[in-house]
Amino acid sequence: MHDDLVQKIKRDPNYHELVKSRSRFGWTLTALMMVVYYGYILLIAFDKEFLAKKTGDGVMTWGMPIGLFVILFTVLVTGVYVRRANKRYDELTQAIHDKVQA
């Protein structure tokens, strides 16, 4: 019985669309996150002088807002994925569930 259910799901075109769409979107967001994170790490490694420059007359350096951007970008990427998952992927999952249960 369980193998029958698995085979029904694997044959469903909505399942294939879900897997393809989710994988492509996930890898795209992963690549963006890696570029931002490793870009920051490379900046730390190779241009410490830039990060140590003050942003104005105060005591804050460029490293602080850039580091904050990396953190906020992570939250943004997570929010984008959750929004897409709640909107698109849940619809496809429900369609697959309804079709298999019928």
Low-confidence stretches: none
Q: Helical content, roughly?
A: over 70%
Q: Provide the number of structural domains.
A: 1
Strand content: under 5%
Number of strand segments: 0
Mean pLDDT metric: 91
Radius of gyration: 22 Å
For the biggest sheet, the summary is:
none
Number of helices: 4
* Terminal Cα span: 15 Å
Given the helix and strand composition, which structural class is it?
mainly alpha
- Tell me the overall shape: elongated
Order of helices and strands: HHHH
Keywords: Membrane, Transmembrane, Transmembrane helix
Protein name: DUF485 domain-containing protein
Pfam families: DUF485
Transmembrane segments: 25-46, 62-82
Structure description:
This is DUF485 domain-containing protein. By secondary structure, this protein is mainly α. It has one domain. The protein is 86% helix and 0% strand. The longest helix has 39 residues. The chain is elongated. The mean pLDDT is 91.
Summarize it.
The chain crosses the membrane at residues 25-46, 62-82. The chain is mainly α and 102 residues long.
Features:
single chain; mainly alpha; DUF485 domain-containing protein; Inner_membrane_assoc; 102 residues; membrane; elongated; transmembrane helix; 0% strand; 4 helices
